[in-house]
Design brief:
With 108 residues, the protein is an all-alpha fold. Helix content is 98%, strand content 0%.
Length: 108
């Protein structure tokens, strides 16, 4: 009878010890996973901040490009106006030159 009690006690101790060890193992693994997740979250937050900064730079560049294109459009319109004015002046000069040439030919 003592042997049976000793075996039951030993079995109960092994059972409790096994549960305790399993709980410690699970708690350790959960802690490791939480630490890994915390590092991954921190890494992702840093990457998001970096992407956010890059997006801000790109938006600013696009805004500058848009302003440049708008001013380029205005500048090209101004250049076109100047070219038209110069073309008019050139035509007037050609007329004047023709008049001078005709009056010069009449003198001879």
């Amino acid at each position: 009878m003592r042997v049976i009690l000793a075996l039951v006690f030993l079995w109960a101790c092994l059972l409790v010890g096994g549960f305790w060890y399993a709980r410690q193992y699970i708690d350790q693994k959960v802690l490791e996973i939480q630490e890994t997740n915390a590092l991954n979250v921190q890494d992702l937050e840093e990457k998001m901040q970096s992407l956010s900064a890059e997006m801000k730079i790109i938006k600013e560049s696009l805004t500058q490009t848009d302003k440049t294109l708008s001013s380029t459009g205005t500048a090209s319109e101004e250049v076109k106006k100047h070219i038209e004015e110069m073309d008019k002046q050139l035509k007037e000069l050609e007329k004047s030159l023709n008049v001078l040439q005709e009056s010069g030919n009449e003198d001879y």
